[in-house]
Task: inverse folding
């Protein structure tokens, strides 16, 4: 048993769980919770079952003391050391060594002051503030991994008794201490850089002022002084220079609290609200219109107004006023941090607003835009809280620390960001190299230490202080990453991720005076003009040693080689690049480019020392396009082996690939790929070019279509492609260093939405363009290392594709059936939509089970994007693209959310998804769901046809084709062909248009449905199988389905005709001739009587056997391909059995003639069976002819009418035959009782059935009725048969057939297309592979349609737009009605529940 102030908990020992000592373990997954106020006794029967994690069992007792006991007084994080203060002790935990060290003091520790001691942000010590006002300093160790030491030389003290300590919320490096002297006077002191500054007079402090922590969007505001008496709030900031020891404080603004004209509903004026609450933190809203003031219990929401600047107001400095203050009670937020002006992290006690005590996160806008009851808080972790309100934010490490319980302190990353700081990472300039392997990041610093971090958590895993890989004496102390530039214009060539695999280091402290210039420069050192000096000899230069190193996965540093090289100064452009095989070096000097080849030295005795190499010039490359090269620090113009480079031929206005060694042209890049055109900036085109390998390059166009091509082929054959989602290339035009593939426009940690978009783009490209499917490779995309913070000057961070906060929300969607997504701010949902979680899942993967979540989710996103578009239009924002997509991707198991819906038979959610996917751009999801298309057809989703037609989309290139004469073939009114997503414009023009005809307005469109039009793809076969079996005839009325069928039909028709129809024509003619001329089994002609006819019969028999085997072979092939599905088609039986029967009949005929000549066949053959089989074969052969009539447009739909009518008659025929059996039985009883000559109904049951059937369809023979045993009864039944069968049943049959005919005739075109789809599905196996391949050469090609626009089509589109708008309004109204009903029902339910609780409580007390 365990208890707290409110509940008693009971638990049982686990059954069958034995620990190491042989005793039963205790488990508390299930326990009993008993309310002490509601129950008068303790027992299992009066408690409620509750699940509780075993490790939280001890939390229960903490509830008794948490509001009274505060053990820890302060904590702070400095690099890899965590400080905790309790009583008179400060304990320091070393994260790397995992060791604690305590420091003891004579006074109680009041607080820990994180203190910057120099100009460098990372050089910190910790000031220990004692209760008597003393500040004792704990200094960092002089050497790495040493112990912190207590400073005994610096003695600091704050006057008076300490009341409040407030630190700046940015770096926690400036501290403000409010104390009170013995005479009651208050004193404000500032502590910074080991110096205490008296700020009392500076801020004009009064005894009525209260010091309040301040967090506002204005990063300069450090603290507030709240004067309740004068109703004034003043904000202050520290304006001292970073290198100044003395703190200088100035006022930012002064806010006057005035009373409103009308009191609020709580009947309290503003002064009373302020007086009743001891404010501990004030938070400013992002728009600076609200000031949220938090006390330990309540929230004061103050609306800030700009005060009119009268002369008096200007004199006293009143710039703002607060007229309206809203009191929101029972929040119980004990401490909080606001980060990025949006996200509020807090420790809250139990309250009606926040819920259970714990560590919370919520959007700051929820405090302002909604009522307190609807505050969208999210409890990240259960915590004790109470008096334990320590919550600190460490900006440098991007971590938050909070008290979880009395024995646990948690340090967690910022859960709303996608970036993770690496704990203990020092400033960037202290490191020489970084390398990422899988989920680990290695970093080598100048002291030779190799530190390992986890990329997924940011934790330090290991630190090697000595480098075992380098077993020679030379250290890295004097080396730095090679860069050529100044502080104003830094060179980041080897600081970004481009060359993170290997790093070039240089020692600029040691000028090599003995460098052999003559050997290096050769003839360039001497002038050809005699006494004159060469340009090289006059250049100012120094000679340094360079080292080329690499961090290996074995946690070793490997030096590939070292070399000596001239350096021409920081203000001279000089960049060095190495080939992927490290055999060549490229040097860029201003307008000179030199290619070197490595020359290895002679082998030395010590093989462990890396070679010291020399470089030999092999080419001075001329005419390098320097204007292209200046757009990035990456050597992107040259191939990885440096032997090819990209150039631009200005005279011909084309890009070319050249050989580096001789400058010869290697390959011309088609103008369709890289075409700057007239007057366009070629640099902008070059920024979208990338070498993937020595043979493959990748380019991207303005539509965001990326294309990988093989430059070894003449026409630069396409290898892969993708359409990058949500791509905005405006930054390429604005910024100089802005290469699309290398330079990220995102350089700040808090650009969460931008980072998520970029991550989605990278993941999409990796999945489709690079073809990555291995989980490890994909995880390397989801978890990356970002070197670009503050333009490669800031610390390296881990960059993920999701935030942990939104991941938690997504998981709740999965297992909470009625998850209330309305609680969350629209901006939060927008961020949630962009997350790609582990295992490649998106939010739709988690929400696919809950229909209302999907509907709400899409509606919020659409409304939010719509508002932003309208706002951009209102502000005339030309740069706002308005593009927003919800990632729709396959997870690591190859499933999209749509896959999960279809597999789970959740067709309503699937229909909503495809309805929303209608608006997605080209190639955004088509390849992810193409394998699902057959199942979608089988599911007959209502929105499927609309979705298919919505996939007719245009690119910018297609929109450029406005007029032309479309080539029409195959009787179609439009042109249909295949094309790459990014085709060559000239080739496309030849493919689609007839230049000799009169042109008209045209429209070219891609059909964004992959693979279904290709005969070589299995998905195409499966898709047409589904179409042929589909009962949704309306689907064939959609232009998209018709286009796919029109494209595949000519080839299917050709080979069905060649391989089946024409041979069948001969087959049928021979069979008819043989059957009629030779009577199948009779033999009127013998070898002796008529030799020619005898021979002709044998030839016909041979041909029949040949054709039978031929058609049976085709059927066997079809059986093998289709498996058991072969048995589901009626036409397959019509194809199979005639050939079998003909083989049997002809074989028997030949046996008779060759082996039983002269004998009577009736003696050894059942002539009845043989004749029946021959008859059946004749019938099936002619029936099979109907199958081939389906090929032709004029007869195809008529055959369909016949088959559909028979299908529609099925139920009727059952009833019809049942009635016939009934009348036959009645006739049979009367007939068999009559005389033999009076049996009018035949001699047996079968004859009687035939007689009754003939009577039912109009044969009125009644000659023997009067001779029967009961003539009157027979005549009565006869009349009844005529009335029911001839009048009722046959007219009903006519009505059914008429209705079927009418339905099919109205949709004859759809019927024709379905017949064609069936033939394509059945007979695609007949087409040889080479024809399939030539019909659609590449599965990555799309269907392209070109059609002439009608005169009124533009008007129709406008009408359609208006109608769509009306439909949107109607849908919105219906959704509003539904939400209103749900809200009303929920409100009624809550009211009823509260009434029931009140009644139950009253009854209980009574």
Result:
């Amino acid at each position: 048993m365990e208890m707290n102030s409110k509940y008693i908990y009971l638990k049982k020992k686990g059954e069958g769980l034995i620990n190491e000592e042989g005793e039963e373990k205790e488990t508390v997954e299930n326990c009993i919770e008993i309310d002490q106020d509601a129950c008068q006794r303790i027992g299992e029967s009066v408690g409620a079952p509750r699940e509780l994690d075993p490790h939280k069992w001890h939390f229960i007792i903490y509830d008794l003391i948490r509001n009274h006991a505060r053990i820890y007084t302060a904590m702070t994080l400095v690099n890899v050391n965590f400080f905790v203060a309790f009583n008179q002790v400060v304990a320091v935990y070393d994260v790397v060594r995992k060791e604690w060290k305590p420091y003891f003091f004579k006074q109680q520790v009041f607080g820990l002051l994180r203190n910057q001691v120099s100009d460098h942000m990372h050089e910190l010590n910790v000031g220990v503030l004692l209760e008597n006002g003393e500040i004792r300093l704990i200094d960092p160790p002089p050497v790495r991994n040493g112990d912190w030491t207590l400073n005994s030389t610096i003695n600091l003290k704050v006057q008076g008794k300490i009341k409040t300590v407030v630190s700046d919320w940015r770096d926690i490096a400036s501290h403000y201490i409010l104390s009170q002297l013995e005479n009651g006077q208050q004193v404000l002191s500032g502590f910074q850089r080991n110096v205490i500054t008296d700020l009392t007079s500076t801020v004009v402090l009064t005894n009525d002022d209260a010091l309040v922590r301040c967090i506002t969007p204005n990063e300069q505001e450090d603290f507030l002084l709240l004067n309740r008496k004068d109703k004034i709030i003043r904000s202050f900031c520290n304006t001292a220079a970073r290198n100044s020891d003395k703190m200088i404080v100035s006022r930012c603004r002064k806010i006057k609290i005035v009373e409103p004209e009308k009191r609020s509903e709580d009947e309290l004026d503003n002064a009373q609200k302020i007086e009743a609450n001891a404010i501990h933190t004030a938070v400013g809203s992002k728009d600076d219109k609200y000031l949220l003031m938090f006390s330990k219990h309540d929230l004061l929401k103050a609306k800030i107004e700009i005060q009119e600047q009268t002369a008096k107001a200007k004199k006293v400095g009143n710039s703002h006023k607060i007229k309206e203050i809203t009191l929101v009670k029972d929040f119980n937020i004990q401490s909080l941090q606001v980060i990025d002006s949006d996200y509020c992290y807090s420790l809250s006690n139990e309250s009606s607003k926040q819920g259970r005590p714990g560590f919370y996160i919520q959007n700051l806008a929820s405090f302002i835009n909604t009522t307190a009851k609807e505050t969208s808080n999210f409890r990240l972790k259960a915590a004790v809280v109470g008096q334990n309100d320590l919550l600190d934010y460490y900006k440098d490490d991007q971590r938050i620390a909070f008290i979880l319980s009395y024995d646990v302190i948690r340090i967690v990353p910022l859960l709303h960001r996608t970036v993770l700081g690496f704990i203990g990472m020092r400033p960037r300039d202290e490191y020489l190299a970084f390398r990422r392997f899988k989920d680990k990041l290695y970093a080598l610093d100048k002291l030779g230490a190799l530190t390992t971090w986890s990329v997924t958590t940011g934790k330090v895993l290991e630190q090697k202080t000595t480098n075992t890989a380098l077993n020679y004496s030379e250290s890295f102390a004097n080396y730095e990453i090679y860069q050529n530039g100044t502080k104003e214009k830094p060179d980041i060539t080897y600081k970004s991720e481009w060359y993170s695999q290997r790093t070039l280091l240089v020692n600029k402290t040691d000028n090599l005076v003995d460098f052999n210039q003559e050997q290096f420069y050769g003839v360039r050192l001497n002038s050809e003009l005699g006494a004159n000096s060469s340009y090289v000899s006059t250049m100012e230069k120094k000679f340094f040693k360079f080292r080329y190193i690499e961090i290996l996965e074995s946690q070793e540093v490997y030096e590939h080689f070292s070399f000596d090289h001239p350096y021409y100064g920081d203000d001279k452009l000089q960049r060095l690049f190495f080939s992927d095989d490290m055999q060549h070096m490229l040097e860029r000097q201003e307008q000179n480019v030199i290619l070197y080849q490595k020359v290895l030295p002679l082998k030395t005795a010590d093989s462990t020392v890396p070679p010291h190499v020399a470089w030999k010039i092999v080419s001075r490359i001329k005419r390098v396009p320097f204007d292209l090269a200046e757009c990035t620090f990456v050597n992107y113009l040259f191939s990885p082996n440096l032997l090819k480079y990209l150039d631009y031929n200005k005279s011909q206005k084309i890009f070319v690939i050249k050989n580096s060694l001789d400058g010869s042209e290697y390959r011309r890049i088609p103008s369709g790929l890289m075409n700057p055109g007239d007057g366009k900036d070629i640099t902008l085109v070059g920024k979208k070019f990338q070498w993937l390998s020595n043979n493959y390059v990748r380019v991207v166009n303005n539509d965001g279509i990326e294309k990988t091509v093989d430059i070894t082929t003449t026409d630069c054959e396409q290898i892969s492609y993708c359409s990058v989602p949500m791509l905005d290339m405006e930054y390429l035009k604005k910024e100089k260093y802005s290469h699309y593939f290398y330079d990220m426009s995102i350089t700040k940690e808090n650009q969460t939405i931008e980072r998520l978009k970029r991550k989605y783009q990278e993941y999409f490209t990796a999945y489709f363009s690079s073809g990555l499917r291995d989980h490890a490779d994909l995880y390397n995309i989801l978890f990356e290392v970002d070197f670009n913070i503050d333009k490669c000057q800031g610390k390296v961070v881990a960059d993920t594709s999701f935030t942990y906060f939104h991941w938690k929300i997504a998981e709740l969607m999965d297992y909470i059936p009625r998850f209330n997504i309305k609680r969350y701010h629209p901006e939060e949902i927008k961020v949630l939509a962009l997350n790609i979680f582990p295992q490649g899942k998106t939010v739709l993967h988690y929400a696919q089970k809950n229909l209302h979540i999907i509907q709400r989710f899409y509606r919020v996103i659409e409304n939010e994007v719509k508002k932003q578009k309208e706002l951009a239009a209102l502000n005339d924002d030309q740069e706002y693209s308005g593009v927003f997509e919800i990632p729709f991707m396959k997870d690591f198991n190859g499933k999209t959310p749509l896959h999960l819906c279809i597999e789970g038979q959740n067709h309503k959610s699937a229909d909503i998804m495809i309805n929303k996917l209608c608006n997605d751009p080209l190639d955004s999801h088509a390849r992810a769901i193409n394998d699902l298309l057959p199942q979608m057809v089988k599911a007959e989703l209502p929105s499927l046809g609309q979705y298919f037609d919505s996939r007719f989309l245009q690119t910018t290139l297609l929109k450029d084709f406005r007029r032309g004469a479309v080539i029409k073939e195959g009787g179609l009114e439009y042109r249909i062909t295949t094309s790459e997503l990014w085709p060559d414009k000239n080739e496309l023009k030849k493919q689609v248009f007839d230049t000799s005809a009169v042109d008209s307005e045209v429209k070219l469109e891609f059909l964004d449905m992959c693979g279904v039009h290709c005969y070589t793809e299995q998905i195409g076969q499966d898709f047409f199988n589904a179409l042929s079996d589909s009962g949704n005839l309306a689907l064939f009325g959609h232009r998209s389905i018709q286009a796919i069928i029109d494209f595949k039909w000519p080839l299917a028709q050709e080979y069905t005709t060649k391989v089946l129809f024409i041979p069948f024509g001969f087959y049928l003619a021979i069979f008819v001739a043989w059957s009629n001329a030779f009577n199948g089994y009779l033999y009127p002609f013998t070898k002796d009587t008529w030799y020619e006819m005898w021979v002709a019969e044998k030839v016909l028999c041979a041909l029949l056997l040949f054709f039978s085997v031929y058609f049976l072979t085709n059927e066997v092939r079809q059986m093998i391909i289709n498996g058991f599905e072969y048995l589901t088609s009626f036409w397959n039986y019509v194809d199979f059995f005639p050939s079998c029967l003909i083989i049997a009949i002809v074989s028997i005929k030949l046996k008779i003639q060759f082996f039983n000549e002269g004998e009577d066949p009736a003696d050894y053959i059942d002539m009845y069976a043989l004749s029946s089989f021959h008859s059946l074969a004749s019938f099936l052969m002619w029936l099979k002819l109907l199958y081939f009539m389906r090929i032709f447009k004029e007869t195809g739909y008529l055959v369909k009418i016949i088959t559909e009518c028979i299908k529609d008659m099925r139920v009727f025929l059952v009833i019809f035959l049942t009635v016939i059996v009934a009348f036959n039985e009645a006739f049979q009883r009367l007939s068999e009782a009559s005389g033999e000559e009076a049996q009018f109904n035949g001699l047996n049951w079968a004859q009687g059935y035939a007689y009754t059937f003939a009577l039912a369809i109009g044969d009125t023979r009644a000659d023997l009725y009067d001779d029967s045993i009961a003539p009157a009864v027979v005549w009565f039944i006869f009349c009844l048969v005529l009335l029911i069968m001839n009048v009722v049943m046959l007219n009903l049959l006519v009505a059914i057939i008429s209705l079927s005919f009418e339905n099919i005739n109205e949709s004859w075109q759809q019927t024709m297309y379905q017949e064609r789809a069936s033939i394509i599905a059945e007979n695609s196996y007949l087409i040889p592979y080479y024809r399939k391949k030539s019909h659609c050469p590449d599965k990555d090609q799309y269907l392209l349609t070109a059609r002439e626009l009608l005169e009124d089509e533009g008007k129709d589109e406008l009408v359609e737009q208006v109608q769509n708008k009306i439909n949107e309004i109607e849908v919105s109204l219906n959704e509003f009605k539904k939400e209103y009903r749900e809200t009303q029902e929920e409100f009624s339910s809550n009211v009823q529940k509260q009434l029931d609780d009140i009644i139950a409580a009253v009854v209980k007390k009574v």
Remarks:
- Residues 15-25 have pLDDT under 50 and may be disordered.
- The two ends are 31 Å apart (CA to CA).
- Residues 1353-1405 form the longest helix (53 residues).
- Residues 1013 and 1044 are 6 Å apart (CA to CA).
